[in-house]
């Protein structure tokens, strides 16, 4: 029997961000490996016209949770959705719910965050910094709390080239920023933002760094650990390969390339593509939860969960394999035949943007106008190019993350735990992983029918010019 799985048995676990990409995979694994856990509290807000219960049912009824229903048939009874908005004071949690959380919680996994690169500083600080402080305050009032696991990002210190498993100080104290945001108006905040974030590439990474500082400052006597994943990608193995559910990170680029919109990307082909499968991250999170609670390290340990130093893949290798997979498993109704290149030169990149992106979009919009339809390709292309430009920072650089704590933890696990909670990325076969990833994007994100593959292949063979069937 796995020691880690047994540890979570009978426990009350609080998860923030449970409706997000990482949070869902975390819940799935917890229920599947520790079906005798007591309860998972999830802090949820109503969204897109759905109540909390509807959101929970939608998650539990998804393909991701199919295996869970076999091992934990009463899973619905073990999830307790608590109304909460992390943007508000006290998270707008009712008194009764708060009382229950404070008196029962054993473990906290804090995953909620805004991951948008272009969020406003006010909103990003509220969610990634102030809410973390608030949650730590709650945690300090939980008599049964055994561990608080904070999810950060490997890029919280991406202004450095070599990053150790330590919390780095930020130039401005988080408290000062939180306080000043209370009285500064939005126009002034916009003006000072570039000066505040200095050499961080965006507000997201900057506020995640501030969030870590808050964890360090407000840790009191809590048992805390920080986990820093790099670019979180589709599942590698569990519960099945290739599961993804949002367009963040590489996912949107894979779609845009597979649909033939994106033909050139400004990237350094030999830079490390530090993608890490989401199930690998979740396995580490659960191992860290156990280790932190049971071994109670004296200080807050930081764990990097990255692939570059143990099993590196570069953007060239990834790109070639993505394109090769499109030949085998094409996406339906592409704008053009998928065919993309990386260019590391700004001038060439601008040339391709004009010739291969903007010009075809303008021509296609003319065609739509002439046929009495509403033009939309130029707008779509401009948004896509804006998105790609925001990701460029991460695909034109390599970082070195030390992984002593992660390796130490691996060596602490029993052979059974190393198998059930495998986070040894050295075992990852990139070519196989990337193929499953692209297939997962087609199946779970685009929701395309696999039965259409032969027809899509035939069309691909015939095509070399834009399709008009978009
Ligand atoms: C040989 C060549 C072969 C080539 C083949 C290809 C090979 C594969 C190579 C892969 C290289 C991968 C590089 C990954 C680097 C990731 C680094 C992450 C590092 C940090 C990791 C973290 O620690 S943390 C999580 C990261 N956090 C995000 O990753 C959020 C980013 N994101 C946003 O901050 C917002 O998205 C932003 C952008 C403001 C737009 O915002 P926005 O207001 O315009 O609105 P939306 O977000 O709603 O998106 C509006 C439209 O952009 C489309 N779109 C959105 N994302 C997209 C995306 N990634 N790629 C494409 N298209 C995307 C979407 O499909 C919509 O299309 P539509 O208009 O048709 O609806
Ligand atoms: N994905 C990645 O590549 C990486 C992610 N990370 C970190 O992992 C964590 C999880 O990221 P990921 O799952 O990808 O992100 P998602 O955007 O998929 O999920 C974010 C979660 O936070 C919740 N949330 C956001 N705002 C609020 C709010 N006001 N009140 C309550 N809940 C809120 C969302 O709820 P709702 O569904 O209601 O919006 C959602 O559950 C984050 O801390 C992120 O920084 C780190 C490295 C890479």
Automatic annotation (TrEMBL):
Family: Belongs to the fatty acyl-CoA reductase family.
Start and end residues of each Fatty acyl-CoA reductase C-terminal domain: 357-448
Function description: Catalyzes the reduction of fatty acyl-CoA to fatty alcohols.
Catalytic reactions of this protein: docosanoyl-CoA + 2 NADPH + 2 H(+) = docosan-1-ol + 2 NADP(+) + CoA; hexacosanoyl-CoA + 2 NADPH + 2 H(+) = hexacosan-1-ol + 2 NADP(+) + CoA; 18-methylnonadecanoyl-CoA + 2 NADPH + 2 H(+) = 18-methylnonadecan-1-ol + 2 NADP(+) + CoA; eicosanoyl-CoA + 2 NADPH + 2 H(+) = eicosan-1-ol + 2 NADP(+) + CoA
GO molecular function: alcohol-forming long-chain fatty acyl-CoA reductase activity; alcohol-forming very long-chain fatty acyl-CoA reductase activity
Boundaries of every Thioester reductase (TE) domain copy: 15-285
Subcellular location as annotated: Peroxisome membrane
Gene Ontology terms: cellular component: peroxisomal membrane
Membrane topology qualifier: Single-pass membrane protein
Gene Ontology BP term (one): wax biosynthetic process
Entry EC no(s): 1.2.1.84
Pfam families documented for this protein: NAD_binding_4, Sterile
Spans through the membrane: none
Keyword vocabulary terms for this entry: Lipid biosynthesis, Lipid metabolism, Membrane, NADP, Oxidoreductase, Peroxisome, Transmembrane, Transmembrane helix
Protein name stated in the entry: Fatty acyl-CoA reductase
């Amino acid at each position: 029997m796995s020691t880690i799985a047994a540890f979570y048995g009978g426990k009350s676990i609080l998860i923030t961000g449970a409706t997000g990409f990482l949070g869902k995979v975390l819940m799935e694994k917890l229920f599947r490996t520790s079906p005798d856990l007591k309860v998972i509290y999830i802090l949820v807000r109503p969204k897109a016209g759905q109540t909390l219960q509807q959101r929970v049912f939608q998650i539990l009824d998804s393909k991701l949770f199919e295996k869970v229903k076999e091992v934990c048939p009463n899973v619905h009874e073990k999830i307790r959705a608590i109304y909460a908005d992390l943007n508000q004071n006290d998270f707008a949690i009712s008194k009764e719910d708060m009382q229950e959380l404070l008196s029962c919680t054993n473990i906290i996994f804090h995953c909620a965050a805004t991951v948008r690169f272009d969020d406003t500083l006010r909103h990003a600080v509220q969610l990634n910094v102030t809410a973390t402080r608030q949650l730590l305050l709650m945690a300090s009032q939980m008599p049964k709390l055994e561990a608080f696991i904070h999810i950060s990002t490997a890029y919280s210190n991406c202004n450095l080239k070599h990053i150790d498993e330590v919390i780095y100080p930020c130039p401005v104290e988080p408290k000062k920023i939180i306080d000043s945001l209370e009285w500064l108006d939005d126009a002034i905040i916009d003006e000072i933002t570039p000066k505040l974030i200095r050499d961080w590439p965006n507000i997201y990474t900057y506020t995640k760094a501030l969030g870590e500082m808050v964890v360090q400052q407000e840790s009191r006597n809590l048992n805390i650990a920080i986990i820093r994943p790099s670019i979180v990608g589709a599942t590698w193995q569990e519960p099945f390969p290739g599961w993804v559910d949002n367009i963040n990170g590489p996912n949107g680029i894979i779609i845009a390339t597979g649909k033939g919109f994106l033909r050139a990307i400004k990237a350094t082909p030999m830079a490390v593509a530090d993608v890490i499968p989401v199930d690998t991250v979740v396995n580490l999170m659960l191992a860290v939860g156990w280790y932190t609670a049971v071994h109670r390290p004296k200080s807050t340990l930081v764990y990097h969960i990255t692939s570059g130093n143990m099993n590196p893949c570069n953007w060239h290798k990834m790109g070639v394999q993505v394109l090769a997979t499109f030949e085998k498993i094409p996406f339906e109704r592409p704008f053009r035949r998928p065919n993309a290149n990386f260019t590391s030169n700004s001038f060439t990149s601008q040339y391709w943007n004009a010739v291969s992106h903007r010009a075809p979009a303008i021509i296609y919009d003319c065609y739509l106008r002439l046929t009495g339809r509403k033009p939309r390709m130029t707008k779509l292309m401009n948004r896509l190019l804006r998105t790609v430009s925001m990701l460029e920072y991460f695909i034109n650089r390599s970082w070195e993350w030390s992984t002593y704590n992660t390796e130490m933890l691996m060596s602490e696990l029993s052979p059974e735990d190393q198998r059930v909670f495998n986070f040894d990325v050295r075992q990852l076969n990139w070519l196989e992983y990337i193929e499953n990833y692209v297939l997962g994007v087609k199946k779970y994100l685009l929701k395309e029918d696999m039965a259409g593959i032969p027809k899509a292949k035939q069309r691909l063979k015939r095509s070399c010019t834009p399709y008009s069937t978009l």
